[in-house]
Design brief:
This protein has helices spanning 23-29, 48-54, 58-61, 75-86, 128-175, 178-202, 216-227, 252-271, 276-282, 345-355, 380-383; strands at residues 3-5, 11-13, 34-37, 43-46, 90-98, 103-113, 121-127, 212-214, 236-240, 248-250, 285-292, 297-299, 306-308, 311-317, 359-365, 368-375. By secondary structure, the chain is of the alpha+beta class. A five-stranded antiparallel sheet has the order 4-3-7-6-5. Strands 9-11-14-16-15 form a five-stranded mixed sheet. Strands 1-2 form a two-stranded antiparallel sheet. α5 (128-175) runs antiparallel to α6 (178-202) and α8 runs antiparallel to α10 (345-355). The protein is elongated and about 95 Å long. Bound molecules: adenosine-5'-triphosphate and magnesium ion (MG).
Length: 386
């Protein structure tokens, strides 16, 4: 601290003598995408976050015109031109930067002229959809919570009498006529079906999860092996994994359940797709990918903590996309477009991902639906068993 006690007892602050810092290095480490455009809207500089944001390296970007990335009617061009003409900082929110190369739906942009370099404009680009995904995630958790209360009631109020009903039917079965036996079997089977449903609901109960290091690739392999001869029969499942990925910090069985629900939904979407140019006749395809995402730290509302979620797992399908009426309630329980669907699959996914402190995002349009999961990795202290 650079405060000294001056005469008279007052505390004065002296300007600290800090060693010179490389501004270039600081800009490189800044987790906000920053680019510098020259007077002709060509890239002169991009920090690492911008390289990631735009999906191109600095080498590829240098001297590339902005119009190579975005159509000329993009609002970004107007902003840059205005910042240049007015010599003032221009901000805009919720911009949609859409082109064959970029797909960002909610970006906050600031354009600032650089007086030292006439004509140059500095742009900061912040993807608000990641922050929004967190908000949504909190809402999903809320949805899952309301289910968890109901799960407890169901388990208590339904399961116990149900075993009584089942037992009674079984007793009757022994002495019933052949015709009546059909009915007792029906009672038994229906009781079993309700029991299975209640057991599915019980997973929503609030129990702490047991975590350990989980190899996410083994989880995906297992899910592929389960799904391929079953729900995903006849569908091509492709894998694109980053083999250097560290283990996730989670519960293996629950993560299997998450991935299986996503793959099952993908397969069901493809199979139920009537459009011949989509999943139907072109061939259904599910792509599973994993990647490591540097610097993905998100602030969680109401908590000083920043969550680090570097593991990214995606499940993509070429089915018809999520129906518009389902979309706003996608992760809520009992929301289903399928005649025999219980609508619990994604509610369970949201609950488990939430319990893991992770994030789930969806991007869906006809022919391409992607569920993107961000998960925490095991840290050293967790590895020590602390
Ligand atoms: N990959 C996808 N493509 C298109 N729509 C999807 C996809 N995944 C989910 N959906 C939509 O979201 C709804 C809810 O999915 P969810 O898994 O929660 O329930 P469900 O699949 O209908 O039933 P359950 O999983 O309980 O058998 C689905 O009915 C479907 O309309
Ligand atoms: Mg489902």
């Amino acid at each position: 601290m650079s405060s000294v006690l001056a005469r008279g007892g007052a505390v004065e602050r002296l300007a600290p003598r800090l060693p010179a810092v490389d501004a270039h290095a600081m800009l490189g480490a800044l987790p906000i995408p920053v680019v510098l455009l020259d007077g002709n809207d060509r890239f002169r500089f991009a920090n690492q976050a911008a390289e990631q944001f735009l999906g191109l390296s600095l080498m590829q970007l240098t001297h590339l015109p902005l119009r190579a990335l975005l159509p000329e009617d993009s609002p970004l061009f107007r902003m840059v031109a205005k910042a240049r003409a007015d010599e003032a900082v221009i901000s805009d929110h919720d911009l949609c930067l859409e082109s064959p190369r970029l797909h960002k739906t909610s970006v906050s942009v600031q354009a600032a002229p650089l007086p030292e370099e006439p004509g140059c404009v500095l742009l900061t680009l912040q993807d608000a959809s990641a922050a929004r995904a967190l908000d949504r995630q909190i809402a999903f958790r809320g949805a899952a919570r309301s289910v968890s209360g109901m799960a407890a009631i169901l388990a208590h109020e339904v399961k116990n009498p149900l075993s009584g009903i089942r037992g009674a039917a079984q007793l009757l079965e022994a002495s019933a006529s052949e015709q009546d036996q059909e009915l007792t079997v029906l009672i038994r089977e229906e009781a079993d079906r309700i029991r299975a449903l209640v057991e599915r609901m019980e997973v929503f109960g609030e129990r702490p999860i047991e975590r350990r290091a989980v190899n996410i690739h083994r989880v995906l392999e297992h899910v592929r092996r389960l799904a391929q001869p079953g729900v995903a029969e006849g569908i091509h499942i492709m894998e694109a994994y980053d083999p250097s990925l560290p283990p996730a910090w989670g519960n293996r069985d629950q993560l299997v359940q998450v991935m299986l629900n996503l793959v099952k939904n993908a397969a069901e979407a493809i199979k139920g797709d009537p459009a011949p140019e989509q999943g139907g006749e072109r061939g259904g395809e599910i792509v599973l990918t994993t990647a490591y995402q540097h610097g993905m730290r998100l602030a969680v509302a109401g908590s000083p903590e920043r969550v680090h979620l570097p593991l990214v797992v995606t499940v993509r399908d070429n089915g018809p996309g999520i129906a518009d009426d389902i979309r706003p309630h996608l992760f809520e329980a009992f929301v289903s477009s399928k005649p025999t669907g219980s609508g619990l699959g994604l509610a369970l996914v949201a609950k488990i991902v939430g319990d893991h402190g992770g994030l789930i995002e969806v991007d869906s349009r006809p022919g391409r639906t992607e569920f993107r999961l961000c998960l925490p990795v095991m840290t050293e202290s967790e590895g020590d068993g602390k």
